[in-house]
User: Which sequence fits this backbone?
């Protein structure tokens, strides 16, 4: 099932942070892209640069609801479906946990049925959160995780685990050709400044002269993957001929503590803001780092953008947003340190 | 929210093995019972003894679909909702994994919304399967489990974990008063002879003179709770004033190997059938035993029926089924050793 340049690709959640970069990359490759997004937690601004493109179609709809007739019509050919749809930062996905769960389970089910109907290949954007607060470092794909199914993060973590289960069942029954990416922390332009992720929080605080907030003592570590690397990995996975029955970690295996990250941001921006420590949110993972051996070997993929370079570009983007007069403030009150 | 004798209680999955005993016990307490069941994996026979009861109402419907108007009507008062609905043995829940997942997630969501609408207390029948193939023995409720979210059991295991997540979210947001029971292996009359559970398989094989099938070497252990004990535990949990934010193990902590169980069955029935060993199914847990300290302390509950007595009664029931001419044969070809 080789992808032709003329084929249409559906990106659910295409107005989101990673989704919007993915749409751009697929358009740049010459494909027609249909983006479906409910615009609940994605940034409307992310669409401005996509909508003028002649091969880009935007449908405002929620994948929890029955899919729009425009997608189901037999004359609409779709050969790839990327499911990037779901609020992905704790304050946002916890705001309506029922909807988060249904987005992952019912939404994925609807898109998998669409893939079955269209004969399209389906890629689920899963998450490092399926590993919970891991006891194994770095995390390999066969690690089963240490996830609480009763806590406040469970709507997302267990929702993604359930979506993986459903995706692999469609493959096991021969109903769809599937790929599952487990996405680790990603950063770059188009991040929502207000969604409480650690990179955007720190940059926004530094740029606006606020206190730099670190949750806990800052020794918890994260790996940060630039969004251009992530998009390249997602496309490589989708187009690979690998056995789709295995989930694949995508992320940057370089590990930084949150304190180190804060130091880099402060140095880049040159702020004199002081660092304040606040309590770690419940269930926050202490450490998360991908083992990407599988992706290296089977996709020939590895991240190439160094953190210093990626942070510089991201700071520049946030600064341009600030200068354009768009709201820009770290989400101090509700946020936790998100894992992605 | 004390339960009055006149209150109506909804039992989803009330035609199933445990559900039908629960309906009977609630009717015996003087309550009106509404049973909703799709009759997909439950035994129609289980309803024969319930349907003549003047306070029993049966609605044939699937909780994956929008709930029947008969339940939603404002004049229908419901004060308790037991969600016992889901295929529970591997060959049955794996036959349509998408439906299994949706039963747990969408079905639970619909019933939780009903509980919110009616001001009813909601009990989710979860499962020891949320512990997967556990590394901790016996399993306490705070053990996070060792579950594969990509394997053939995931539709059930992850479906139940997702249902737990959603249930606790309804409680966290004050939308419903909830209880979550993690049900371990249960046996007794009304089991489906053909669903591949270890107790029914062994008894049916012994009664019909077939080979006694043991998967693996038989050293894997299970704990077996008689259904009358289980029903008493479920009602005690539903009516307790405990903090509903904690899941509660219900099961019998006495541990037997599958070989020991087979020996007891063979001795009770006096068959000369020979034991044959077959390969263990994928993902089959090696060991499962509940820590029921929490239920003992907070519900004052513990099982009282010894295995020898329960097995004797269960064998007698299976024999009466056989004599009544109802189909009775161990499911040799498709079954695995189910955990419940």
Assistant:
């Amino acid at each position: 099932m080789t992808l032709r340049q003329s084929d249409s690709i559906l990106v659910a959640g295409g107005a989101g942070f990673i989704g919007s970069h993915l749409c751009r990359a697929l358009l740049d490759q010459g494909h027609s892209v249909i983006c479906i997004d409910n615009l609940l937690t994605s940034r409307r601004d992310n669409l401005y640069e996509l909508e003028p493109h002649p091969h880009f179609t935007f449908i405002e709809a929620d994948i929890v609801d029955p899919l729009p007739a425009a997608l189901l019509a037999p004359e609409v050919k779709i050969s790839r479906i990327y499911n990037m749809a779901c609020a992905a930062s704790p304050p946002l996905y916890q705001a309506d946990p029922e909807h988060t769960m249904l987005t992952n389970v019912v939404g994925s089910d609807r898109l998998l049925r669409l893939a079955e109907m269209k004969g399209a290949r389906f890629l689920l954007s899963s998450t490092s959160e399926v590993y919970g607060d891991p006891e194994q470092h770095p995390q390999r794909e066969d690690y089963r995780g240490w996830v609480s199914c009763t806590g406040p993060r469970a709507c997302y973590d267990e929702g993604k685990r359930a979506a993986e289960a459903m995706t692999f069942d469609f493959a096991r029954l021969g109903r769809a050709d599937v790929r599952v990416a487990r996405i680790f922390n990603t950063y770059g332009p188009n991040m929502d400044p207000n969604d409480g992720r650690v990179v955007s929080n720190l940059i926004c605080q530094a740029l606006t002269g606020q206190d730099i907030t670190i949750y806990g003592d800052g020794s918890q570590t994260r790996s940060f993957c630039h969004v251009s690397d992530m998009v390249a990995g997602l496309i490589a996975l989708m187009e690979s001929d690998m056995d789709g029955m295995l989930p694949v970690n995508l992320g940057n295996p370089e590990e930084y503590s949150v304190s180190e990250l804060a130091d880099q941001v402060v140095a880049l921006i040159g702020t004199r803001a002081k660092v304040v420590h606040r309590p770690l949110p419940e269930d926050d993972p202490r450490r998360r780092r991908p083992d990407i051996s599988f992706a290296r070997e089977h996709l020939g993929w590895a991240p190439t953008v160094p953190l210093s370079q990626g942070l510089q570009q991201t700071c520049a983007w946030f600064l341009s947003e600030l200068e354009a007069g768009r709201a820009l403030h770290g989400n101090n009150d509700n946020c936790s340190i998100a894992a992605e």
